[in-house]
Amino acid sequence: MIYEYDHTFVLETANTSYIFAVLPSGHLEHLYYGKRIHVDCREDVFSLMEKRKFSPGNTIVYDNQNPGFTLEDFRLEMSSEGKGDLREPLIEMTHQDGSRTCDFLYDYHEILDEKAVLNTLPSSYDESSRTKTLKVHLKDADYEQELILCYSVFEETDVIVKSTIVMNRSQEEVRLNRLLSNQIDFESNDYVFTTFHGAWAREMKKYRVRTDAGTISCSSYTGTSSNRANPFVMLSKENTDEDYGPCYGFNLIYSGNHYEVCDVNSFHKLRFLNGINPRGFGFVIKPGDSFESPEAVMTFSDSGFNGLSQNMHSFVRNHVVRGKWKNRIRPILLNSWEASYFKFNESKLMKLAKAGKDVGIELFVMDDGWFGNRDNDTCSLGDWEVNTKKLPNGVAGLAQKINDLGMDFGIWVEPEMVNVDSDLYRAHPDWTISIPGKPHSEGRTQRILDLCNPDVVEYIISAMEKVFSSANISYVKWDMNRIFSDYYSTYLDADRQTEVAHRYVMGLYRIMRTLTDKFPEILFEGCSAGGNRFDLGILSYFPQIWASDDTDAVYRVNGQTGYSYGYPMNTIGSHVSACPNHQTLRMTPLTTRFGVAAFGMLGYECNLCDASADDLKEIKEQIEIYKEWRDVLQLGKFYRGRCNQIHEWTCVSEDQSKAVGLLMKELIEPNMQFEQYAPKGLKPDVKYTFNNRPLRYNIKGFGDLINTAAPIHVKPDSLLHHVVAKFVTMPGETESYEAYGDTLMQGVKLHAAYAGTGYDEDTRYFSDFSSRIFFMKEKDIQ
Question: Model-level pTM?
Answer without folding.
Answer: 0.96
